[in-house]
Amino acid sequence: MASRKIYKKLLFYLGIILIILFMTIPVYILFRVSFAVPEDVLTSHPKFFITRFEFKHWQQVFNSGNLWPPLYKSFIVATFTMIFALVISAPASYAISRFDKKIKYAVILSLFFTRMFPNVGIALPISVTFLKWNLTDKNIGLIMAHLIEQLPFIAWILVSTFETIPFDLEEAASIDGAGRIKTLLKVVLPVAAPGLAVAAMFTWLNSWNEFTYALYLSLSTKTLPLQIYYYVLRGGFFQQAAYSTILTIPVLIITFALQRYIRSDYLGGAIKG
Amino acid sequence: MKFIKKHYFEILLVLPLSAYILGFTILPIIKTILLSFHDKSTGALGFSTYQYLFSKKDFNMAIINTVAVTLVGLTFQLITGLFIAMSLKTDFKGKGLVRSLVLLPMGVPTLVSGVTLLYIFGTQGYLNELLFKLGIITKPIAWTSGGIKNIFVIAIADSWKVLPIVVLLLLAGLESIPSDVYEASAIDGASKSQTFFNITLPLLKPSITMTIILRAVDSFRIFELPKILAGRVTPFLATYAYDEYAYNNANASAAASTILLMIIVIFMILYFKFVDKGGVEYGK
């Protein structure tokens, strides 16, 4: 009996170890390749463990001049997408959270359904229209395209944030004679601020990683994900790894800093990353 | 009028968001659907674009591949996800660390997860090396050269990326099951497997429904991973739609997108009709 228990426990830990290996090894390999000596990995028998480092690929990446324009474009687009998404979605989410329960449910469900449309189906007419409006390759065009996905996403999160703020708080303010806009800015906004910040950061990440719309709307300029894709097509073995590492670093940091905020109702908006 | 007067403030707040979604999501989708029913050269209404699509082998393959990758991926994700979620619910040493490590793929962009799996599943990749070292194979296997192997590679890549989300969704469901239900079943002398199939699974159904719907829709639309891991050898609906667009064939691209939309809608209807008669519960 006792030995069977130990046997079971061993099996359990073995399962856990296998899962951890499955989850972590790909990330390890990415970092490993970006620092690898070519003979160690570019063979039919790649070495798994790191025995020596080489920074040549990194130097090439930083000196080639191919890094800064896409990095800059990705950063600008992600930041402005985040700002616009907040400005447009936050007031709307506040109003939705104060709706009658039935209407609220209907609105939330329709937000949910707009997220189910295939983005290639939306990107096609958008790219045709933006070509006409001369927005292709422009940052503002890409920001507008990213808002298509990010507005429902952030609204979904923010509705549940505003829901947790008790209505009594606003009533008290209005009894004290504050107008509705003043109540919103002085009472609701400060309480909601942490939730807004978390939602904003996830929006930033989604836009930073976004690939589909960027592919449809870029002819000569590149975002960081497009740059990675370009090296995948060209077979740039080490550039792939280095650029991927650069793209990953902010995502990894922000995701783990916000780990405890990732609640399951956030996932309803599906954090794709 | 009275309604507008009373609620002008709320309407003002919601207006920009609604206008944006209407103009940049609903309208484009309608445009795409309309475009798919127009003939490319004559512009006449009809099904000629669809006839063209279904006569192409690549497109039929794309439908099969898309459905296959969803089935394989979802099955793997649900089983593995459930195992991880259940183990994270029990207490053991180092649980916090394990939880953090399981969430690791969440911090890796989808595109990047495709690139890393390229290093693993490449012909000169680490999986072949592992199999070689274990003495299972003598010649490297071309994992990403198309066919059924490629479906599995993409399903695994997709699963790796989304497992954290699946685990968190299921874990939230598990944690919402009150512990006295388990106590009662233990008192009644239920075995572990009885408890699992008669208590855990039925009570977990809302979470499982949520997971399946979110995951299936994302999986039908799969785009980045095949773009990185399969190139043009294994078409999927979304990548096929892009290819047609890239060849300047907007009508065919629109038709492929419309079919993708149809598949998503049909899946949802079938799922709610036959599998789960409830609804999506918001905020579970």
TrEMBL record, chain A:
GO terms for biological process: transmembrane transport. This is Carbohydrate ABC transporter membrane protein 2, CUT1 family. Residues 71-258 form the ABC transmembrane type-1 domain. The keyword Transmembrane applies. The chain crosses the membrane at residues 12-31, 75-96, 108-128, 140-162, 183-205, 241-262. Coiled coil: none annotated. InterPro entries: BP-dep_ABC_trans_perm, MetI-like, MetI-like_sf. It is found in: Cell membrane. It comes from the Bacteria. Belongs to the binding-protein-dependent transport system permease family. MalFG subfamily. One of its GO terms (cellular component) is plasma membrane. Keywords: Cell membrane, Membrane, Sugar transport, Transmembrane, Transmembrane helix, Transport. It is a multi-pass membrane protein.
TrEMBL record, chain B:
GO terms for biological process: transmembrane transport. It comes from the Bacteria. It is a multi-pass membrane protein. This is Carbohydrate ABC transporter membrane protein 1, CUT1 family. Signal peptide: none annotated. InterPro entries: MetI-like, MetI-like_sf, Sugar_ABC_transporter. It comes from Caloramator quimbayensis. Belongs to the binding-protein-dependent transport system permease family. The chain crosses the membrane at residues 12-30, 62-85, 97-121, 151-174, 195-217, 252-272. It is found in: Cell membrane; Membrane. Keywords: Membrane, Transmembrane, Transmembrane helix, Transport. Its main location: membrane. GO terms for cellular component: plasma membrane. The keyword Lyase does not apply. Residues 63-271 form the ABC transmembrane type-1 domain. PANTHER family: GLUCOSE IMPORT SYSTEM PERMEASE PROTEIN GLCT (PTHR43759:SF1), TREHALOSE TRANSPORT SYSTEM PERMEASE PROTEIN SUGA (PTHR43759).
